[in-house]
Amino acid sequence: MNNIILLIVLIAIVTFIPRLIPAIFVNKLDFGVKAKKFLNLLPFTALAALICPGVLTVDTKIWYVGLVGAVLAGVLSWKKVPLGAIVIITVTALIIFYTIIGFLL
Amino acid sequence: MGIGYAAIAIKGGLNPFETVGMSILVYAGAGQIIAASMIVNGATIINIVLTSFVVNFRYFIMNTVVFNKVTESNTKLNILSAHFVVDECFALFSLMDESSIWTYLGVSIIPYLSWVLGAIIGVSVLNMLPVIVTNSFNISLYALFIAILIPNLKRSKTITLMVIITGILNYLLQFVIGNWSLIVATLIGAIIGTYIVDDKELDLEVEKEIINQGTVKEENHE
Questions:
Q1: H helices within chain B, ranges in order?
Q2: What is the CA radius of gyration of chain A?
Q3: B48 with A7: Cβ contact below 8 A
Q4: B159 and A37 in contact by Cβ < 8 A?
Q5: Is any Cβ of chain B less than 8 angstroms from the Cβ of A82?
């Protein structure tokens, strides 16, 4: 329990420091084009690394449950369904999916 | 999204107090979800803290832009408002004609309050749900990630290539370095990306994505 509070405080610190530095040293910071591009790309690669292969561990026993959800979310997103709706539909679909497998197994 | 974060945090073993506390103290949308899912996977503290630092480092860039624009301000007010930068208010403020620090504080406090409120709603609602439903919530995080990525992949072939390389890299690296593969693959993927991603595609995409996220988030709160 104490570990979790320590962890939260540490994450808060390493998140706040990069936010704080520009607030103090305004006008003294400038990046190269390449560095800016690298920092802009980080969120994309972080998401990619989180999805693959994490999505296959959604259910530790039945690996393809995550794959079913991922494909559904991908298709919905491709069809320009709003973000909130994608999450709600995917979760609902998995509840139905679990119920069906429950009958088959 | 705040509710989705709460679902993962609770699953990672955080109590409701810690879950909401993290939203208040850390305040980093995707960053918090990443941290929470790493707790679920049993990653080490150092690993989680380092990954959070890397993923949340973009706020450094955003605040650099914000405080270069801000007028009618001083260092004290800047420090006070530094905590509240996220993608949504950064995009809004960058596009606004107004440049007063008070406008920025107004624009940034609303997403903050709704993020904290989302976590509070999340922890109160989740206690009342049956097990099969909370199990299915595991997918919500990945559905969210995929929904954020796909519109960008659709428009940019070079970002798609970078994303695929990163995914494969992470898959292979986990057999060698375990949980550290996440941060290593993220960094290597972005380095490769600086060489292969088309500059024009990136500029457009980042801006559009941020604006889209802003509008979607507002709709969600209704």
A1: 2-11, 16-25, 29-40, 45-56, 58-69, 75-82, 87-95, 101-126, 131-136, 138-155, 157-177, 181-196, 199-221
A2: 20
A3: yes
A4: no
A5: yes
CA distance A55 to A93: 16
Backbone angles phi, psi at B100, to 5 degrees: -70, 145
Q: Using CB atoms, which residue from A12, A24, A91 is nearest to B25? A: A12
CA distances from A27 to A58, B64, B68, B195 (A): 46, 8, 6, 28
Each residue of B204-220: pLDDT tens digit? Answer: 444 544 445 544 444 44
- Could you report the per-residue pLDDT of B145-177, keeping only the tens digit for each? 788 789 889 988 999 999 999 999 999 998 998
From chain B, the residues in CB contact with A49 under 8 A are 166-167, 169-170, 181-182, 185-186, 189
Closest CA to B87 of B107, B70, B117, B106: B107
Every domain of chain B and the residues it spans = 1-149, 156-222
In chain A, which residues have their Cβ closer than 8 Å to the Cβ of B6? none
Residue A19, min C-alpha distance to chain B (Å): 5
